[in-house]
């Protein structure tokens, strides 16, 4: 038993000493609350490379497979100089998505009602195939419209949850670069928006 423990310690030390090589998988950690996950992810990053162009990833699901359910949305100011929005989904992977700025008026799907958000930039985040509700109902009202008052992300509003499409409009203080990444365990789409200079 001691020999096995010693080998694990030695393997970890060798992995830490060689930064260019891949490391062995880590032991599973205890689940974190969504706010703790957003904060922990933010602390791991030290550089920012973003875009103003649309970012898209298409995914389809097979017949009879349930749509991915959006469970939670979290916001945080991240360091250095950007805000983070985390969309957390049930299941193993993030659905297809498209993220882009729009200069057109924003409307709710179905009704066509206009939607206004704080800030001069409007960043649309669409997920498909997805839904923001399950058999128990939809996201809580507090989850559907948030005013976090962050330096870049001023407001988030759910504008569509219909026929396999989920869409949000993010009110951005001023249009600025953003980047998109995917995380697992749980499945998350992470959107970082740079603070305006």
Q: What's the mean pLDDT score?
A: 78
How many separate helices?
3
The CATH architecture designation is Sandwich
> CATH class, please?
Mainly Beta
Task: Give the termini distance in whole angstroms.
Answer: 56 Å
Give me the Rg, rounded.
Answer: 19 Å
Q: Which stretches are poorly predicted, pLDDT < 50 over at least 5 residues?
A: 1-32, 37-45
**Sequence of strands across the biggest β-sheet:** 1-4-5-11-10-9
Q: What share of residues is helical?
A: 10-25%
Task: Choose one word for the global shape.
Answer: globular
User: By helix and strand content, what is the structural category?
Assistant: alpha+beta
Largest sheet: 6 strands, antiparallel
Number of strands: 13
Strand content: 35-45%
The sequence of SSEs as H and E is: HHEEEEEEEEHEEEEE
CATH third-level topology:
Immunoglobulin-like
How many structural domains does the protein architecture include? 1
Q: What's the structural blueprint in terms of helices and strands?
A:
Layout: H1 2-17, H2 34-43, E1 55-57, E2 68-78, E3 82-89, E4 96-102, E5 121-128, E6 130-131, E7 133-134, E8 137-138, H3 141-144, E9 145-146, E10 153-162, E11 165-172, E12 178-183, E13 187-194
Parallel strand pairs: 2-6
Antiparallel strand pairs: 1-4, 2-3, 3-13, 4-5, 5-11, 7-8, 9-10, 10-11, 12-13
Describe the structure.
There is one protein chain. A hairpin with a 6-residue loop joins strand 9 (145-146) and strand 10 (153-162). The model is unreliable at 1-32 and 37-45 (pLDDT under 50). The strands form three sheets. The chain has a six-stranded antiparallel sheet with strand order 1-4-5-11-10-9. It has a five-stranded mixed sheet with strand order 6-2-3-13-12. A two-stranded antiparallel ribbon has the order 7-8. The protein is globular and about 45 Å long. It is α+β, with helices and mostly antiparallel strands. 15% of the residues lie in helices and 39% in strands. The chain has one domain (28-194): Immunoglobulin-like.
């Amino acid at each position: 038993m001691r020999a096995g423990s010693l080998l694990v310690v030695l393997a970890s030390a060798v992995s830490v000493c060689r930064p260019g090589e891949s490391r062995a998988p880590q032991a599973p950690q205890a689940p974190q609350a969504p706010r703790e996950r957003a904060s922990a992810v933010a602390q791991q990053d030290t550089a920012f490379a973003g875009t103003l162009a649309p970012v898209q990833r298409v995914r389809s699901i097979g017949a009879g497979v349930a749509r991915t359910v959006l469970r939670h949305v979290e916001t945080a100011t991240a360091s250095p100089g950007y805000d983070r929005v985390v969309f957390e989904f049930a299941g193993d992977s993030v659905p297809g998505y498209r993220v882009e700025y729009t200069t057109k008026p924003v409307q709710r799907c179905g009704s066509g009602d206009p939607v206004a958000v704080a800030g001069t930039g409007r960043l649309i985040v669409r997920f498909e195939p997805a839904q923001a509700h399950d058999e128990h109902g939809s996201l809580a009202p507090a989850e559907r419209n948030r005013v976090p008052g962050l330096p870049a992300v001023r407001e988030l509003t759910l504008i569509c949850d219909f026929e396999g499409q989920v869409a949000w409009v993010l009110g951005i203080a001023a249009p600025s670069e953003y980047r998109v990444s995917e995380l697992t365990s749980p499945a998350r789409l992470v959107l970082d928006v740079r603070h305006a200079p």
